[in-house]
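Saturday, quiet lab. Running sequence design on the structure tokens for the scaffold JK sent over.
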């Protein structure tokens, strides 16, 4: 069944379109009312040393932050410190993106699993979050609101794990019963702009956090190749706190001048990473995912 994500998040159309800068994200409203909690403020300031005082206040008030940079080194401004931080940074190794988007969301700590059973330990929660990342088939049918047509359009479809780029038979979601330190598999997806695409999905598990990364294995094309292999990379990190959950996302892109002249890349790829984080949020929280639907993040032209 195709799912309807409550966030407008899409790839930019890659010809004759200049996409406006995105407005505020719909994923993050305050997880509760943390503005008066000095302890929470101190915890986040310690975990996210790159955050400014103004950004911290905004995160506590609004529940979300979005940052983008161009032609500057990736600084992992919002990446929270955890036992897997080095591995997450390593996912961008030997890579010099010239367009970067980072997002950080403050959400309620999940209390029950999808069957309504309360979590009895941090390990149990981390396993569920880890398997949420690995349930990639649930990306199929994710939709976004099109500014051009005024209706909903499918963003991703036919998303599933495969053995390799050459062996493309769909595999079941590779769920696990214990969180491994590191694992990966190849991912097939069809998207509304680039058609059939292949990504390596990589996963890290730690004592306090879990993550998912994605790297394109073949060039992304729109009639002609527009982004070379391994030049688009995503990372997402879920870090449970005592009463909250920090959800971090980053996307980096090495883009040539032709593509940068054609598309407003910060807005385009910001929608991508928010689409992924909202997919994760929907799976964890369902209809009651602790967020309020705001104005659309952005629409295509």
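Result came back. Writing it out in full:
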């Amino acid at each position: 069944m195709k799912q309807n994500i409550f966030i407008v998040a899409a790839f930019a159309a890659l010809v004759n379109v200049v996409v406006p800068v995105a407005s505020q994200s719909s994923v993050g409203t305050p997880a509760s009312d943390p503005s008066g909690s000095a302890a929470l403020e101190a915890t986040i300031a310690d975990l996210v040393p790159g955050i400014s005082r103004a950004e911290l206040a905004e995160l506590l008030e609004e529940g979300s932050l979005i940052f983008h940079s161009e032609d500057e080194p990736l600084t992992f401004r919002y990446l929270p410190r955890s036992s897997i931080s080095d591995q997450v940074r390593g996912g961008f190794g030997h890579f010099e993106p010239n367009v970067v988007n980072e997002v950080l969301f403050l959400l309620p700590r999940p209390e029950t699993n999808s069957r309504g059973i309360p979590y009895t330990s941090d390990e149990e929660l981390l396993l569920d979050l880890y398997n949420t990342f690995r349930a990639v088939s649930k990306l199929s049918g994710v939709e976004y609101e099109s500014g051009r047509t005024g209706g909903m359009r499918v963003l991703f479809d036919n998303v599933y794990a495969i053995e390799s780029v050459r062996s493309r038979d769909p595999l079941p979601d590779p769920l696990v019963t214990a969180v491994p330190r590191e694992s990966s598999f190849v991912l097939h997806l069809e998207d509304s702009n680039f058609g059939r695409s292949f990504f390596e999905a990589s996963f890290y598990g730690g004592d306090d956090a879990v993550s998912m990364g994605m790297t394109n294995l073949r060039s992304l094309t729109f009639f002609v190749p527009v982004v070379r292999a391994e030049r688009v990379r995503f990372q997402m990190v879920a870090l449970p706190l005592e009463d909250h959950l920090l959800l971090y996302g980053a996307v980096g892109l090495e883009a040539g001048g032709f593509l940068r002249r054609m598309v407003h890349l910060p807005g385009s790829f910001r929608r991508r990473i928010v689409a992924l984080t909202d997919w994760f949020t929907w799976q964890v929280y369902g209809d009651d995912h602790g967020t309020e639907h705001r104005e659309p993040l952005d629409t295509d032209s």
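Notes for JK: The domain at 34-285 is CATH 3.30.530.20 (Alpha-D-Glucose-1,6-Bisphosphate; Chain A, domain 4). The longest strand covers residues 195-205. Ask whether to fix the surface positions before the next round.
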